[in-house]
Write a structure and sequence with these properties.
The chain is an alpha/beta fold. It is built from 27 helices and 21 strands. α1 packs parallel to α2 and α8 runs antiparallel to α9. The relative contact order is 0.07.
């Protein structure tokens, strides 16, 4: 029998599940079983859990359907557990280093206890210091094991479930399980307190709980707050006849009064009913001799006991602070423009207006352009306008309505549009209006760390600016696009928000399945690729630790060594697109070309380091070579989500000589290369099937229900655009 069973429900936290599991498996104390509870065997988290189970036999996944809720998932884990003590982690929790050692040592010192409460750290996403709410509760607790009556302030009502380990035999003997409902923690913690006879505390942080950016689900408005009364009734009914429960009563009704005192949590029509039912419970369960607390809380107790809702409402209104300052006004440049924008915000949202932007205004490109084109076909009643930087109007095709970023027209459009589509973010000053719909399309699959995950990399963090402001922009998103489950999980981590994930694929990649041989030939002519040559697209990514563009490779020397039939299409990162051409001889600079998709269609093979272009290009099922000459430096300075060199899309070269050799000897197009690419495509080309833009337009612009959207075509049934000609091996 293992010492600990660690149960980790994963619903809604698939992106962070690996962090929780790593924190457990990385413990120096190894006598445990780890039970990740997933929605179903085919759920995204199940694939993560299965990978861990395949590597470590201490990991035993279990399954609980989403409709069973958090309580059902925990109870499933509880039934599967065989350990002496149970520890419940949530998806936002990780164990601190040495946590299990500390718990084991404390249990050895105290002897068998029903519950061992431990300190936990509440960590904000960004600004603010971590908090340890258990520390002051434990300050006056006895040093050894004690009965609950000796330290009534230490109870499961005031501490989250993750802040305790429970003896499994104790829970089984009393039939203790998590009660259904959103306030299951409070109910379970209260029931444990009622039945526990011997408890102890550990003055050591064992769990770090990452606070949800949107705040606790329990603080959100809605009718679910009625469950707080259900759990209170359940606990106090069980406590009746088991001696004094004054402290438990006070703690439960402190939570009830906190909700009653925050009107925004309750529907207007249900506030009086909530108060009346709370009054009935108060009168029924109030222990004999109970003394109300002092101050304002004591007044609330008395009003609740008397059922005086009108007086309570008046007190609540008197105690509320002056409302927060008016929401932040946008910051367009110039006083007249600011006033103009604020005036436009007073006008109604235009239900037939959509505003698009790509790469901070570089032009008509990427998924916003693909959605724009499909909207013209499927939703012609919606007027669409593209935003571009000053001086970039030439990057918009003729006939496409556009506005210059910063102009009065652009601010008017941003103020009134119902639909706002971007692959980056709109300006800091753009207000998310009620009724508007913001779609974030992203512009690549994340290999490198993104969003708030960049925070631990100083060079990147310094260039990113305020993560708090970044998260404020994320809060405007209603939808976020994903092209594979890896991206879905990483976006959840990197850009935490309340948006809906759309696993529809990237619209910009549709062309990789819809383009014809004539399209490929046309693009090659436009780019100047000589007839009969093998065009190798070289697309290095940006280096945060460097300034200016450095190709990182002598391209002329590469062409000479790779073979006479090779030409290089140089595509620098868009950060370095200044309109100047760097090409000469067999090097064709395509950095300034509007469409990276066109460039990919023209290429017979791709060479890149760590650019996300590899995930898009893989849709074409053409050879890919990874040139990883500084992988160690890159991972140290930027950080990555997975080991690319362990699962590459093709051959990996670490030196210029190795890179030239794989082209000279043809191994870049070998069967071994194809096998690697097949695995890569299965993992990262999940949702790109040529119809992503249509799915987006129907779901977002036309408002069709999710179940009506045509599913993604299986990978085996997709036919990529043809290459220009069979590959020539020198």
């Amino acid at each position: 029998m293992p010492r600990f069973s660690i149960i980790v429900p994963s619903h809604g936290a698939a992106g962070r599940l690996s962090l929780a599991l790593d924190s457990v498996l990385g413990q120096s104390f190894g006598d445990f079983e780890l039970i990740p509870v997933c929605d179903a065997p085919d759920a995204p988290a199940a694939a993560v859990a299965a990978g861990y189970a395949g590597r470590d036999d201490r990991v035993t996944p279990a399954f609980s359907p989403p409709e069973a809720g958090l309580a059902g998932a925990r109870n499933t884990g509880l039934r599967a557990a065989t350990g002496a003590y149970l520890l419940f982690l949530d998806g936002e929790d990780t164990l601190t280093p040495g946590a299990l050692d500390a718990l084991d040592a404390r249990l050895t010192g105290t002897g068998e206890v029903d519950v061992l409460y431990a300190e936990h750290e509440r960590t904000p996403w960004w600004e603010g210091e971590p908090a340890n709410p258990a520390a002051p509760l434990f300050a006056g607790a006895p040093r050894g094991a004690f009965g609950p009556g000796e330290a009534p302030e230490v109870t499961g009502v005031r501490l989250p479930v993750c802040s305790a380990v429970h003896r499994r035999d104790f829970l089984t003997a009393h039939g203790l399980v998590f009660p259904d409902g959103p306030f299951t923690d409070l109910g379970f913690g209260g029931l444990v307190t009622v039945h526990a006879e011997r408890v102890a505390v550990l003055r050591h942080v064992v769990v770090r709980h990452l606070l949800r950016r949107q705040g606790s689900r329990l603080d959100l408005p809605g009718e679910h707050h009625a469950d707080l009364l259900e759990q209170t009734d359940l606990v106090l009914s069980r406590a009746a006849g088991r001696g004094s429960c004054g402290a438990l009563f006070a703690q439960l009704f402190a939570a009830v009064l906190k909700t009653a005192a925050h009107p925004a949590r309750l529907p207007a029509s249900g506030r009086r009913a909530f108060f009346r039912r709370a009054t009935a419970l108060y009168r029924r369960h109030r222990p004999a001799g109970f003394r109300v607390p002092g101050g304002s809380l004591g007044v609330q107790h008395r009003l609740l006991a008397a059922g005086a809702y009108t007086a309570f409402r008046a007190l609540r209104g008197a105690n509320r602070k002056v409302s927060a300052a008016a929401r932040r006004v946008p910051r367009p440049r110039g006083l007249r423009t600011r006033l103009y924008y604020r005036l436009q915000l007073r006008r109604p949202v235009d239900p037939r207006l959509a505003v698009y932007c790509a790469y901070w205004g570089r032009g008509y490109a990427c998924s916003p352009a693909a959605i724009h084109a499909k909207a013209a076909e499927l939703a012609p009643h919606i007027r669409s306008v593209f935003l571009v930087e000053p001086g970039r109007a030439h990057a918009v095709p003729p006939g496409i309505d556009h506005a210059v970023i910063g102009s009065r027209r652009a601010w008017r459009l941003l103020a009134r549009a119902k639909y706002l589509v971007n692959n980056a973010n709109f300006a800091e000053g753009v207000v998310k209006r009620e009724g508007s719909v913001h779609l974030q399309t992203q512009h690549g699959t994340p290999l490198k760390k993104m969003g708030v995950d960049q925070s631990t990399y100083p060079v990147v963090a310094a260039a990113t600016g305020s993560f708090t402001k970044l998260l404020g922009r994320v809060d405007r998103w209603d939808y976020n696009l994903s092209s594979n489950t890896h991206s879905t999980q990483m976006w959840e981590r990197a850009f935490p928000g309340s948006y809906e994930q759309l696993e529809y694929g990237y619209p910009r990649n549709d062309v990789f399945y819809t383009a014809t041989a004539e399209d490929v030939a046309r693009v090659r002519r436009e780019l100047g690729v000589p007839e009969g040559k093998t065009a190798v697209l070289y697309a290095p990514t940006h280096r945060d630790h460097r300034t200016g563009f450095d190709p990182g490779l002598d391209l002329e020397a590469f062409c000479e060594a790779a073979g006479d039939d090779v030409v290089v299409l140089l595509r620098a990162h868009y950060f370095y697109d200044r309109g100047a051409r760097r090409g000469s001889g067999r090097i064709i600079d395509v950095t300034a070309h509007r469409s990276s998709e066109d460039v990919c269609l023209a290429a017979d093979a791709l060479v890149t380091d760590y650019s996300s272009i590899m995930f898009d290009y893989a849709n074409l099922d053409r050879p890919i070579v990874v040139y990883a000459d500084d992988w160690d430096v890159y991972t140290e300075t930027r950080g990555v989500y997975f080991d690319l060199l362990a699962a590459p899309p093709g051959p990996v070269a670490r030196t210029p000589e190795e890179l030239a050799r794989v082209f000279a000897d043809g191994s870049y197009a070998s069967e071994a290369s194809r096998s690697l690419r097949n695995l890569f495509r299965a993992r990262f080309c999940q949702f790109d099937d040529g119809r992503a833009a249509e799915r987006v337009v129907r779901r977002v612009l036309l408002g069709e229900p999710a179940e009506a959207i045509e599913p993604v075509r299986p990978l085996a049934e997709r036919v990529p655009a043809p290459a220009a000609s069979p590959l020539v091996i020198s």
